Amino acid sequence: MFDRVGRRRAARRVRPGDGRALQPFRWWQLLGRALFHLPPSDPHAPEWSVDIRHWQDQASGSVTADLYRDGLCQAHSSLPAAFPVDGGRIEVAMSGFGVKRCHLVSADGSERQLSPDPRSAEGRRARFDRRHPLASSVVGVVSVGVIAAPIDLPTWSTVA
Questions:
Q1: Tens digit of pLDDT for each residue in 51-92?
Q2: pTM of full prediction above 0.90
Q3: Are 20 and 72 in contact (CB under 8 A)?
């Protein structure tokens, strides 16, 4: 995903955080905010969180993310970002449709995906998929159909 040059650029974008507390996710932020967590692997390890504001700066078109350690802001960056953390880095990237990548990449190269907040749009979609896998598949197929329906395919008619 991130090549060597891209990783260096992403790491240069990272700025120190201001230490503010992580705000809880609210229902009205479903379309404009994504929140991901990396629960600690042992009781003494910190909990990392990444807060992405999709519509924070619509004028410039840049999307930003904040890295939180145990609920306090440690770093801020525009995306794509590679936040340095203990034992590796957290890579965050967006696509035109939402969050494309939010992974912890350890020093040995292994990857661990961050979990979406259960109240976020990503968390609700994941919960729906776990509880109703068939319905989730149907919704996916219908979504692709709705997107593909307006495509005007050329007609192969003969001219008389």
A1: 998 766 545 567 889 999 998 999 998 888 889 888 888 999
A2: no
A3: yes
Name the 3-class secondary structure at 142.
helix
Give the span between the Cα atoms of 116 and 52, in whole angstroms.
Answer: 11
pLDDT digits (tens, 9 = 90+) for 107-123: 888 888 899 998 988 88
Q: What angle do CA 72, 75, 78 make, to 5 degrees?
A: 130
Residue type at position 123:
G
Omega before 80 within 30 of 0, i.e. cis:
yes
Q: Where are the beta strands (DSSP E) in 86-148?
A: 88-95, 98-106, 111-113, 115-116
Give ∠ CA 2-62-150 in degrees, rounded to 5.
85
At 46, list the tokens: 């910190």
Structure tokens at 97: 């449709």
